[in-house]
Design brief:
The complex is a heterodimer of chains A (337) and B (253). Chain A is of the alpha/beta class. In chain A, 32% of the residues lie in helices and 24% in strands. In chain A, the strands form three sheets. In chain A, strands 6-7-8-3-9-10 form a six-stranded mixed sheet, with helices on both faces. In chain A, strands 2-1-4-5 form a four-stranded antiparallel sheet. The two termini of chain A are 28 Å apart. Chain B has one domain. In chain B, helix 1 runs parallel beside helix 5 and helix 6 runs parallel beside helix 10. Classes of the chains: A alpha/beta (337), B mainly alpha (253). The interface between A and B is medium-sized, with 37 and 29 residues. The complex binds adenosine-5'-triphosphate and magnesium ion.
Chain lengths: 337, 253
């Protein structure tokens, strides 16, 4: 993924969104899959679930939206998909306003909701075909069959929904969303209550969708899940997006650790023999800070200590510090204007 | 126009009817037959004729209307309440389908179902009494308009209801009494003058009167009043439905 589409923050661009211009289809291809600007939501109860959210999802990426319970993940997705009204702000799907141009916008979006909902008495095949029709697509038995087979539902196609296990029901919800061939797919906590096998199967489906150019947005509570699947990760907390980052960059931050060496005498600068270790001075020269990657082969610590010994630099004490996701969040929240 | 979407809703609603065929068709037919036995036979032995029509035949249009009203309301209200209750409504809200099309699918299916039942009841009635239909076209117009209008009303009730009690409240406590008091079993002329006036505030009187006129050419109120009343009701229901969708009332947070 290229990084030439920075996360859009408020004020940086359109603001409250004027009419969307229909540009030539060449530029249409470069529009972001989803672009959220200035989105706020206050529920009737008075609770503000989203606070001025700006977010841009690129075409064809897998975006993981990470956040604790009640952070606003489902609210955000529900607004994008048309299930909840926004209080303020606009959402564009491939450039189409999800309110003003709802037909076009919604026809390209598929949603797998967090809650398991179903029409108890209907068969798997009929509910999946229903979704395709509802989204305005002509019948295509071959496509329905493929979706059902990919999700190992084909043998259950004539089963009534109420006869399925929870995991099976979730597969059906995924099949419903895929039945109308969406270009953007939302998976709201797809792995909740799902066993290892289904999870693997689901990730296989997600990867093959991505290979076909489908943009995927999934929500999760688990950093590992984001790590496993996503190209980029967004973190939402208390209705605010507090971080959007390439997964690799995020993992680098998470994977790095600091070794702090406390010196008996302050140093003016990092001594020449130690320069190649990439050290930094801290605490007015009383501390040498060495940042290393816990995930790489060697940490470089033995070499550093040997070089220090040879250069005749002593230290009184040492400690190591892991930068956690939490640290990153805290810093982000604190550093925002 | 999302034709496939409307069709999907319509077909799936009709399939639901098919699954509950016994309940959907047998019970109204049974209760109509019971009305015939009880009212037609018991009262009919005392009142032999109303305005030149045998009592048994006289109550047929009223009975059909009674069933049409209650069936339309309960079919449509249940049809939209159910997805709200189970949560599958998310899909309707997230689909590229207009409000009008959603209503068309649901109300179309509910109206079709109650029309079917109406026709079945007419046929059943034919076994009990000789039927004559003086104005068949008007009869169909009244049937179709009433089925659609009250299916719309049912749709509104289904959206408004947040529990099964409310869902049953309106058909049971409002529609049925209005239909009973609306001249199903008697001619308005048979009431004392004061109650005749009161009755004219009951909208169902106009429906039954018009419908009965299409059979026997006799009416309590003028044809124009009957048609006007249905039209007024239809417009009112359409207005409420469009308001519901515009504001997302009880549908969207
Ligand atoms: N209809 C509603 N009315 C009032 N408050 C609501 C409503 N829906 C959600 N909320 C509140 O909005 C906040 C965000 O909810 P949301 O469902 O978006 O969180 P989430 O990030 O999806 O959480 P989870 O991980 O538990 O699914 C919560 O505090 C929730 O209580
Ligand atoms: Mg949620």
């Amino acid at each position: 993924m290229s990084s030439d589409h920075p996360v859009r923050y408020r004020g940086a661009e359109t603001g409250s969104g004027g009419p969307v211009q229909r540009e030539a289809s060449v530029t249409a291809l470069h529009r972001p899959a989803i672009s959220v600007s200035g989105l706020s939501k206050t529920y009737a109860s008075g609770f503000q679930a989203l606070k001025n959210v700006d977010l841009e999802i690129r075409r064809g990426e897998i975006f993981a939206l990470l956040g604790p319970n009640g952070a606003g993940k489902t609210t955000l997705i529900s607004i994008i998909c048309g299930i909840v009204n926004a209080s303020e702000g606009t959402v564009l799907a491939e450039g189409y306003d999800v309110v003003k141009d709802y037909r076009t916008a919604r026809s390209i979006i598929g949603l797998v909701p967090q809650e398991l909902t179903n029409n108890a008495f209907e068969t798997v095949h009929s509910v999946v075909s229903f979704s395709r029709g509802l989204f305005g697509k002509p019948p295509n038995p071959a496509h329905i069959e493929k979706v059902l087979r990919d999700l190992t539902l084909w043998d259950k196609r004539e089963a009534q929904m109420m006869m399925l296990s929870g995991g099976m029901k979730r597969r059906v919800l995924i099949a419903k969303a895929l039945s109308h061939e969406p270009r953007i797919l939302f998976l709201d906590e797809p792995t909740a209550g799902v066993d290892v096998e289904l999870r693997r199967e689901m990730w296989d489906v997600v990867r093959s969708l991505r290979a076909n150019g489908v943009t995927i947005i999934l929500t999760t509570h688990y950093i590992e899940e984001a790590e496993e699947m996503a190209d980029r990760v967004g973190v939402i907390s208390n209705g605010e997006i507090i971080l959007v980052e390439e997964k690799s960059a995020l993992m680098d931050k998470l994977g790095s650790k600091e070794l702090v060496l406390q010196l008996p005498e302050p140093l003016e600068a990092v001594p020449a023999p130690l320069r190649h270790h990439g050290l930094e001075l801290a605490a007015e020269g009383y501390e040498l800070v060495y940042t290393y990657d816990t995930q790489s082969e060697g940490t470089g610590i033995p070499e550093l200590l040997r070089d220090m010994d040879q250069a005749g630099i002593e230290f009184r004490d040492l400690r190591t510090k892991q930068s956690s996701l939490e640290d990153i969040f805290v810093n982000l929240v604190r550093n925002r204007p | 126009m999302n034709i496939h979407g409307v069709r999907a809703i319509y077909v799936s609603e009709m399939a639901r009817t098919g699954r509950t065929l016994l309940q959907s068709v047998v019970s109204p037919v049974l209760s109509t037959s019971l009305y015939f036995v009880v009212f037609g036979a018991a009262i009919g032995s005392r009142i032999t004729e109303v305005e030149g029509v045998s009592y048994g035949a006289f109550i047929v249009p009223g009975l059909v209307m009674l069933m049409l009203l209650t069936q339309s309301v309960s079919n449509a209200s249940f049809a939209i309440y159910f997805p709200k209750f189970t949560g599958t409504i998310y899909e309707l809200l997230s689909a590229p389908i207009s409000h009008f099309e959603i209503v068309l699918g649901f109300v179309g299916a509910a109206a079709t179902k109650s029309l079917l039942i109406g026709v079945i009841i007419l046929i059943t009635a034919g076994f009990f009494v000789p039927l004559q239909i003086a104005h068949p076209v008007w009869m169909v117009v009244f049937l179709v308009l009433t089925a659609f209008t009250f299916s719309l009303l049912g749709f509104i009730i289904g959206i408004w209801a947040d529990g099964f009690e409310k869902l049953q409240f309106v058909p049971l406590l409002i529609i049925t009494p209005l239909a009973f008091l609306g001249g199903t079993f008697y001619s308005v002329d048979m009431l004392p003058p004061f109650w005749q006036t009161v009755t004219l505030f009951n909208p169902v009187v106009y429906l039954i009167s018009g419908f009965r006129w299409s059979f026997y050419g006799i009416a309590d109120v003028s044809l124009a009043a009957s048609v006007g009343m249905i039209a007024l009701f239809l417009v009112a229901c359409l207005a409420v439905v469009s308001w519901i969708f515009r504001t997302g009332y009880k549908l969207k947070a």
